[in-house]
Amino acid sequence: MVQYSSAALDASFAALSDATRRGILERLGQQESSVSALADAFDMTLTGMKKHIAVLEQAGLVTTEKVGRVRTCRLGGRGLWAEAAWIDGVQQLWDARFDALDGVVEQLKRKEQSDGPEHA
Questions:
Q1: Which of 24, 86, 110, 117 has its CA 20 to 30 A from that of 4?
Q2: pTM beyond 0.85, yes or no
Q3: Considering all CA atoms of the chain, what is the largest pairwise distance in Å, rounded to the nearest integer?
């Protein structure tokens, strides 16, 4: 399995673990937005939204720019390729284990059929 920076993956998955932050990413995927507009949309305080934005920024998922008194947020440029690749690698491990389990179950079924019904 390919190795990825543990710190970067940890930051991304920590950021994505919160439903509000995932909602922020979905909203920013449609259009950039000010921090105050996001706070209003998610019915939270400006301070609370700033904390969510900081976590997303630290993970590289969001960038912000301050123009005058308005801080505008947009999706970060790096995407989630490394995270998707890591998930895909884990999925392949699970698939291989389930395939092996299916093989064992099939072997047991064939053995049971060849032995015939058991008599008590």
A1: 24
A2: no
A3: 85
Quick one: which of 32, 67, 68 has its CA closest to 53?
32
- Looking at residue 34, the DSSP 8-state letter turns out to be E
* Cα 107 to the center of its chain, rounded Å: 37
- 3 state SS of 36: helix
CA distance 66 to 73: 9
Instruction: Count CA atoms within 13 Å of residue 42 on its CB side.
Output: 26
Lookup: tokens for 68: 């005058």
Residues 6+ apart with CB under 8 A from 33: 27, 41, 72, 73
CA distance 120 to 118: 7
Q: At what angle do helices 19-30 and 6-16 cross, to 10 degrees?
A: 90
Report the chain (120 residues): mean pLDDT per 10 consecutive residues. Answer: 72 96 96 97 97 96 95 90 90 90 88 72
Query: What stretch of H or E contains 64?
Result: strand 62-67
What backbone torsions phi and psi does residue 71 show, to the nearest 5 degrees? Answer: -100, 115
